[in-house]
Amino acid sequence: IWVGVKEDTAVPPEPGPDEEIDHSFELELAETRSIRRAVELTPGDAGLKRRLEAAEELASSTLFGRLCSAARIHEKDGRWESAAEAWARASGERPRELTPLLGVAYASCEGVVHLKRAAEYARRATTLDPKSADAFALLGRVFLLAGLSASAVGAVESALRLDAAHPLANALARQLKLR
Looking at residue 13, what DSSP letter applies? Predict the structure, then answer.
């Protein structure tokens, strides 16, 4: 089971077939564990606490990048369930990032379809960035796949208000006979 970088059991995703194993992440985790232990032994040391925060941020950033890369590799290989899971883990590391939310929603519409999960992440994306035509268009796609035409129309119209030339929104608009 995946656990985030603030836990001692964090494990990086397996490298893809074309990736070399990069041990820098393991070194970052080891350093983070060492600093965490030092903070436990000397809780009043503000300098150590700052070093721990910096080490945790570096490890989190590395983990986020690796998860996004793994998700893209899974997408390229048509492994949609694995892609959705990698995007979800990336979203857990950076909940205020739009890309992983959209990634989960998109991957959840492909392969073995998980419309409930797709809708959840697409809605979160529209809440996070209400000016994202991508998020509203993807939400419209999810609604259309779920057979919720009226909701799809609303989401697609929102996407088109934000970007009248948005390719997915326009394709969905034609499918919904809005254009």
Answer: P
Q: Give the C-alpha separation, 3 to 121, whole Å.
A: 20
Residue 18 pLDDT > 60, yes or no? no
Q: Which residue has the tokens 């041990």?
A: 23
pLDDT given at position 4: 36
Query: Taking the chain, what is the end-to-end CA distance rounded to the nearest angstrom?
Result: 46
Report the b/e string of 27-63 with b at 16+ CB within 10 A: ebbeebeebbeebeeeeeeeebeebbeebbebbbebb
Spatial contact of 105 and 91, defined as CB atoms under 8 Å apart: no
Query: At 6, is the secondary structure helix, strand, or coil?
Result: coil
pLDDT digits (tens, 9 = 90+) for 128-162: 999 999 999 999 999 999 999 999 999 999 999 99
> Rounded to 5 degrees, what angle do the CA atoms 100, 104, 110 make?
140
**Do 62 and 81 contact (CB within 8 A), yes or no?**
no
Asked whether residue 19 carries a pLDDT value surpassing 70, the answer given is no
